[in-house]
Amino acid sequence: MLRVGFVGWRGMVGSVLLQRMRAEGDLEGLEVRFLSTSNAGGEAPAGGVSGVLGDALDVRQLRRFDVVLTCQGGGYTSGMHERLRGEGWNGFWIDAASTLRLRPDATLILDPVNGDRIRRNLRTGCRNFIGANCTVSLLLMAISGLYREGLVEWVSTMTYQAVSGAGARKLSELTRQLRHLSLPGRDLTSLTSLEAEQAVTEVQRSGSLPSTEIGAPLACSVLPWIDRAMDDGQTREEWKASVEATRLLGADPPVKIDGTCVRVDALRCHSQALCIKLGREVPLSDVHDMLRSGNPWVRIVENTKEATLSRLTPAAVGGKLEVPVGRIRRLQFGPLFVGAFTVGDQLLWGAAEPLRRMLEILREHRN
Length: 367
Ligand code: NAP
Known about the structure:
By secondary structure, this protein is α/β, with parallel strands linked by helices. Helices cover 38% and strands 20% of the residues. The protein contains twelve helices and 15 strands. It binds NADP nicotinamide-adenine-dinucleotide phosphate. The site of NADP nicotinamide-adenine-dinucleotide phosphate has 26 residues, from helix 1, helix 6 and helix 12.
């Protein structure tokens, strides 16, 4: 049995990953030890080989595992990966953080899109398997069928990214902002609509909303900036789209994807409004078929109000593996321009699911 050290199991990604592993019965086929950076010696969650949390910062403990599976974040990866490799550890490092994504000795993992490459790299000795950026993974889950047909010239994606994409502490700060905005002691429903809007706006501007984690009021608002600035006006989140999609698809020349990444006050699921420039004109029904052929999780949503409102929202998609793509229509710019909207659970296909499935691939490889 593979011996797996699981770090970061109580964060947003880790807790969803653990939930999925339990639901799929994965823990029975593995020897999992839970570790912690903050509570070594504390009580471990059920399903592992020990009731006590191991020390995620102890290289001697980590060396014993065949696999280190981490959802702890980039700081942990930067601190531990090199140290462990430096000690001659030759196990598999599976990671949700971005730190190692672009290294030549790492493979990005999203097996419905690049399963062949993952297995090939595994056979030829790759030991670092890293989940891609959540927005990029969800975009490719939605439209990889079009890439496979060589139909995409470029994509502009405008994103609506949930707060849980930024981690547990930011989600919890948003809930505190929401509580503040509901104006304790004052019944918003007793005000006129304009009075209610003005009351809420006043609180947003007052500086009283807790915002040390998020950096600004997000409740009832949007923040068109995610991650740090790059040199050319993009944010790093925007920069990742083309770079990581190119790597995931093994594309040469690089794929062209750009747009504005926006944090919204949805709690879970990233949505993206797409403008796709096709390389050749094809009927929309063929676009539907190609999208569907991308992988078994794509769902085409009819371009009607009823279907869109019931199936193409974070509220409808959260907690599900399906990746709906809707609002598919020819844009007014010309026959080569297609618009679409997609929603996906960034904690599932954008993070936990590729990691969980990588463990399965390792198990197959071992047998
Ligand atoms: P997170 O929720 O912030 O959790 C990371 C760690 O923070 C936890 O393992 C925990 O470590 C510690 N922590 C501190 N306060 C916590 C609290 N109140 N609740 C839970 N954990 C707390 O981070 P994440 O969103 O899971 O992301 C982990 C990595 O995955 C990051 O590198 C991120 O960029 C990447 N990623 C995230 C997403 C996403 O949708 N969130 C998607 C793709 C990739 P200890 O138990 O050791 O204290």
